[in-house]
Specification:
By secondary structure, the protein is mainly alpha-helical. The protein has one domain: 434 Repressor (Amino-terminal Domain) (Orthogonal Bundle). Helix content is 60%, strand content 4%. It is globular, with a radius of gyration of 16 Å. It starts with a helix and ends with a helix. InterPro entries: Cro/C1-type_HTH (IPR001387), Lambda_DNA-bd_dom_sf (IPR010982).
């Protein structure tokens, strides 16, 4: 496992939406960016290797716990879209 790469990602203090983080998990891009194999990445985010394999193989979707845990471990901030109050009322009409 490349501790320097993990520390670099943590120091960047990235911010992304849940969808963006999910895309990185499903595609395996985040794991590859960290230079980890599936076993190392699974250990980092506290899941079983089979979970990572199934998610990247499009056999399963990541659970919210995995998404939030990944964000917490790598210090990735989660952005939640904010809608204007007027837009909320338009949907009720």
């Amino acid at each position: 496992m490349s501790n320097e790469t993990v520390k670099k990602v943590m120091a960047e203090k990235r911010r992304m939406t849940i969808g963006q983080l999910t895309d990185l998990l499903v595609s395996g891009a985040l794991r590859r960016e960290l230079g980890m194999d599936k076993t190392e990445f699974a250990t980092l985010v506290s899941v079983m290797r089979s979970t990572i394999r199934r998610i990247e193989g499009l056999e399963a979707t990541p659970r919210m716990g995995l998404i939030f845990n990944t964000a917490a471990v790598l210090r990735i901030g989660i952005d939640f879209p904010i809608t204007e109050e007027g837009q909320k009322n338009d949907h009720k009409k």
